[in-house]
Amino acid sequence: MATTEPTTVTAERTAALRELLPPVTRRRTRIGLVAGGLGTYWPQFPDLLPQLQESSAYVADRFRQLDAEVTDVGFISDAAEGAVAAEQLRRADCDLIVLFLTTYLTSSMVLPIAQRSHTPVLVIDLQPSERMDHASFDTGAWLAYCGQCPVPEVGNVFRRAGIPFRSVSGWLRQESAWRRIEQWVRAARVRAALRHARHGLMGHLYPGMLDVSTDLTLLPATFGSHVEVLEFDDLRQRVERVSEAETRERTALARRIFAVDDSVVDEDLAWGATVSVALDRLVEDFGLDTLAYYHRGLDGELHERLGAGMILGASLLTARGVPAAGEYELRTSLAQLATQSIGAGGSFTEIQALDFEDGVVEMGHDGPAHLAVSARDPLLRGLGVYHGKRGWGVSVEFDVQHGPVTLLGLGQDADGSLSFITSEGSVVPGPLLAIGNTTSRVDFGRDPGEWVDAWSATGVGHHWSLALGHHSADFRAAASLLGIEHRAV
Prior knowledge:
Layout: H1 11-18, E1 30-36, H2 41-44, H3 48-64, E2 69-76, H4 79-92, E3 96-101, H5 111-117, E4 121-127, H6 139-143, H7 151-160, E5 167-171, H8 175-195, E6 198-203, H9 218-223, E7 226-230, H10 232-239, H11 244-257, E8 259-260, H12 266-286, E9 290-294, H13 302-308, H14 310-320, E10 324-325, H15 330-341, E11 347-355, E12 360-365, E13 379-383, E14 393-399, E15 403-412, E16 418-427, E17 438-443, H16 448-456, E18 464-468, H17 472-482, E19 485-488
Parallel strand pairs: 1-2, 1-3, 3-4, 4-5, 6-7, 6-9, 8-13, 9-10, 14-17, 16-19
Antiparallel strand pairs: 11-12, 11-18, 12-17, 13-14, 15-16, 15-18, 16-17
């Protein structure tokens, strides 16, 4: 593949992608919001409550602008009202609950909200402005700036109650504080995506890949998600029902989205298109949010041909928002869903080689790829041999967009617990292999051999999701909401 600087993704390819089945619609992230202060103050300082309610309205409006479904249960002034709010938020089944401490309140007012909802809680305390006007302020005016006062109290009580504590302190229109708050909302998107996901697992483990093996019970136990175990016969049956017209239509679409190399055999492209149509139906019929697959096959029999024909359709599915991963990589398909949920894409990736002269790690993978991370129109290349696998057909090849990237892997430890593992780097230009793989040259700002040692020591498997932008902080926050460990390299 050429090594010139990447070009902007073409409008034609964007339009062609939109002609595919509409992007998958998922449940919106649900944010619960409650504001509060100590009701004892209201008769003492009549102007205080209206001022705090005005701040609460501003906060609610900011949350509604964050592409989330907001359940605002209003303003609480005592423990009884806190209990009512707790029940409302419990029924709302939120992905994150935000407690806005507008002034001092007692911890008894908010503890039931955290206890009864069984939902992660974020405490925010945003005073009206950068500082008080000390010369003119009386006690009532000061109390509007006293939201920080109960934060240590709430933190202490949450710890004693075994509830994880998170907080953002700042002032009402402080954009740096809102960026921190928005990070928690992005983390809630990850939690929502994994909590409600249906993960398709089709075929069997690639023989000998022990790191890929995943405890299927652990995923619903950790995240609440569902694993749908599929057979390749589920795909075969749907392939048999694809019409010639549907194959021609999907082939034409592929030619609009991809540059087609001369190595591509028409019959192989048609087969990939047929499998692609069947994959769409498989995903729709089983309500899948991700798909991981592998089948070894033998001597060109039908199931081998199905496995070899998956790359085109799996890449198009990933572009629609249903991440697909080969080699039965269930955990990596979850990592791809996590990176995709915050709008960062996420392509199936492993280490390919190290370039010690340029100080970069070369990484990528054969098989399905995320078109959103491509630097230019992706290429379909015909392969007579899939290295390490049986079968033949078309494969996707492109250079990842140059600039910041984040790796996210999902590790599993000796005790069975899952963890988010991240590393941030930058994709830089340089020579790339032209072998039908997604490829990238990632600079982690250190000796590439040392990076490999540190990355491997985390317990990450040999596959992960490569996403655009730097997002380790987002996934650290998401790990907190999910109740799992986060490790960064």
